[in-house]
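Example 419, ligand zinc ion.
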Amino acid sequence: MFLRFGICLILFIFLNQHVTASYKSYDGYKILEVPFKHKIAKRYVQNIDKHFGFMPDFLGENWKKEEAHFFIEKDQVAKVGDALKFSNISFNLRDVDSKMFTFSRKRRDLANSPISITDINTRYLSYDEQIQFLNNLASQFPNLVKLQNLGNSYEGRPITAVRLGDDGTNKPIVWIDAGIHAREWISYNAALYFIWTILNDPNYRQLLQNVQVNVVPNTNPDGYEYSRTTERMWRKTRSRFTSSKCAGTDGNRNYPFFWGNEGVSHSTCSEIYCGTRAASEPEVLALTNAIMREERRIKAYVSLHSYGQEILYPWGHTKNSHPSDVQDLIRVGKMMATAIQNLHGTQYNVMNSGDGLYPAAGASDDWAKSRGIKYSFTMELSPSDDYTGFILPEDRIFQVNRETFQALTTLVRVVSQEF
Ligand code: ARG
Ligand code: ZN
């Protein structure tokens, strides 16, 4: 009795304190901004690895200012500055606010109510909380929600697909997944918000009569937990192959379409390491298998990322290569961007993913398109024109959730009308 009380008391104290995880410190790191409007600068940025002697971590871009952002490690800062000056390229090295990279959050106590939509709109959840949220929705909406385990991550966490409106018929499917890149936290919340809102708002729920939507809100749970607890800027999976120096593969370079080609690295320590072979990652294997099982019914595919405020369409594995129905992709991409803009005026740029700064082979959008899925997009969510990057403050989650919902339901509506 007393023992039990004691354990409860300790648990209570533990769960109520502010927990500040001990993170990797990013003191001395810099964000490198390079404007690429001019031809010479653009060519420089596109070959930046050759100029620097290593590939810096590409963060994203501000397409309004035509400026690329890279994350520069402390010991590379001097070298990078020298290289840029030598070539007469204008640039800015911005200090990182290392406070932003330490995540202090209040743990919920066990007696607290279940995870609610308010949580989804105001804070970043743990993987376990995400699963708890999905389980609750599944029991609340037994006829509209089926949870499916697509397989386990490298560290053994189930990759859960939420099948919305699966009634055993052959309706067209829209596939949405999020967070293959661990540090892009807003993508997880945006996916969960979509699931909750399409179920709870009767105006949108009726879309599920004609279309099934499969959402995988966390495609990289190992990476996400690692980013939450250890290294905020972690991007990759957490796999490690025997004798490899560094852990992790870029899941979005691991898909089996032009795998290992342009815009990838074969060195394990790189942020864009493409893995030992196509679909070497259990996460990617689970996703490709699941999509292939239903590919004839899947009419649209969206992968949620951040940041940049972009709607990207294939092909992205190389430059100057467009699918024959590219005009359809542009038309629907623009409809999605307009739906976002109509909400608060936020602008998204609809563009080809290979013609921008970097082609990248082995990405999921290209692979989905290659499987015959007509509308395939990668969405880079907010921000774009400020410097919080992946560290989107919690008070901005709600707006991004709502904007993403508008874009995704626009796509669902297109599919319900065209198929
Ligand atoms: N930021 C994403 C990445 O680097 C963009 C991928 C776009 N698609 C593509 N096929 N290049 O993975
Ligand atoms: Zn990404």
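Summary: Residues 181, 184, 305 surround zinc ion (ligand 2) (CB under 6 Å).
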